[in-house]
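Q: Convert this sequence to structure tokens.
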Amino acid sequence: MEAASKPFAVVTGASSGIGFELARVFGENGFDLLIAAEDNELHGAQEKLKETGASVLAHRVDLATEAGVVELHRHIQTAERPVDALALNAGIGAGGAFATETNLNDELRLVDLNVRSTVHLCKLVLADMVERDEGRILFTSSIASTMPGAFQAVYNASKSFVQSFALAIRDELKDTGITITALMPGPTETEFFERAEMEDTKVGAGEKDDPAEVARQGFEALMAGRGKVVGGSLKNKAQVAAGKVLPDSVKAGMHRKMAEPGSAEDDD
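A:
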């Protein structure tokens, strides 16, 4: 079958934003797709992605639940095609002061989606890649992984986990045919800040990167077998570089200025 001769990519969080653009760039580069997300935008995304010439399967599923991860993996197996590339992109944010403003259930759901589901789905798909000694995995991390996230405490911690996890697995697999890449975007023009209730913050109201550009950078790094790539603008790269020498207390203070509720009204 001609379609089955194409490589196959699975992309989570693919209904919009970076996930949709990752799926698009995979499709434009000759991959067939299985896309997953929990919202009703998914099937509209599926139709748009078919315009790339890819065969596109779509599965609406809540990956913040263990059952959702198992269900998605079952659909991957039903496709009866080896996963050549897995983009673990699904994630959410939560803004506000941890002690007084945020909702615990929202934050535990964030941990379940950003951390638990990432580990769970990676474990399931990686087993087949190891058996074949072939495959690529892209983790959507964040430049947030490099700094304590005042007013985004749980989100930044989740991305620090993802970043460390990805690079650790990469080292474990360095003598195999499997490559692991961490994509580290900065603030990007997606629904993230609206969903995280951060539109009144300096970072939420400020200029953001194009998700299509970020996705292309991630795809190119993945295909080149690179360990990590800072997505978006040169400002993001400078921020990550500065983070290597700044004390954590300074980085937390910088993050506060960007993410504190109401900071969009400040001119400084």
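The chain has ten helices and seven strands.
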